[in-house]
Write a structure and sequence with these properties.
- It holds the Pfam family Sigma70_r2.
- InterPro entries: RNA_pol_sigma-70-like, RNA_pol_sigma-70_dom, RNA_pol_sigma70_r2, RNA_pol_sigma70_r4_t2, RNA_pol_sigma_r2, RNA_pol_sigma_r3/r4-like, WH-like_DNA-bd_sf.
- One of its GO terms (molecular function) is sigma factor activity.
- It comes from Salinisphaera japonica YTM-1.
- Belongs to the sigma-70 factor family. ECF subfamily.
- The protein has 194 residues and is mainly α.
- It contains nine helices and no strands.
- Helix content is 77%, strand content 0%.
- The protein is globular and about 55 Å long.
- It starts with a helix and ends with a helix.
- The protein folds into two domains: 98 residues, Orthogonal Bundle (Rna Polymerase Sigma Factor, Chain: A), CATH 1.10.1740.10; 73 residues, Arc Repressor Mutant, subunit A (Orthogonal Bundle).
Length: 194
């Protein structure tokens, strides 16, 4: 199984290198091998097949343009591709609702806190301020920490699933999550004081 994963990783890396050199056939193969995974992620974030398809197209344009920036020593090729897709989705969400930088609708977050219809305007304002503080603090995390925290929270992935998704050792993923949550806690405490 591990040998198969390494072979897949090496194949994706080879297609990325060829894509960086302008090889359209390698780009088609890369698209064919990875587009369903990127689309699934985009659909979970954007919750609209049309918007997910638009984001997928934008992501692959970006991949074509930026393939030369992929560095194997910094992470798995699929993780790099998923990151590009995720950032495209977040960009789309920000354009739709600039005050929201998290890959969830604010209504869903608000209902997790309290039934939205029972909130007073003051409480709604406080919830929006809380979301803004969380978004600001998420921006202070490293890319790996932010991705682990968001995947664990929004997709409910276990540490082992995160390690597989991120193509990183289990201990490293646990460390990213722990440090990310500690930084979030400290940042939110500072936000509450100011």
């Amino acid at each position: 199984m591990k040998g198969l994963l390494m072979a897949e990783r090496e194949q994706l890396e080879a297609w990325l290198v060829a894509t960086a050199q302008g090889d359209e056939q390698a780009f088609r193969k890369l698209y064919s091998a990875t587009s369903s995974q990127l689309y699934s992620l985009l659909l979970r974030i954007l919750r609209s097949p049309e918007r997910a398809q638009d984001a997928l197209q934008d992501a692959y344009v970006r991949i074509w343009q930026k393939a030369h920036t992929y560095a194997p020593e910094r992470g798995a090729p699929l993780t790099w591709l998923l990151s590009i897709a995720r950032y495209r989705a977040l960009d789309m969400l920000r354009r739709k609702q600039p005050e929201v930088a998290m890959p969830e609708e604010p209504d869903r977050v608000a209902t997790l806190l309290e039934d939205e219809q029972s909130l007073s305007p003051l409480e709604e304002n406080e919830n929006q301020q809380s979301l803004s503080a969380i978004n600001a603090c998420l921006g202070d995390l490293s890319d790996e920490q932010r991705q682990c925290v968001l995947l664990a929270y929004y997709e409910g992935l276990t540490h082992q699933e995160l390690a597989e998704r991120m193509d990183a050792p289990l201990g490293t993923v646990k460390s990213w999550i722990r440090r990310g949550l500690l930084r979030l806690r400290d940042c939110l405490a500072e936000e509450a004081i100011s």
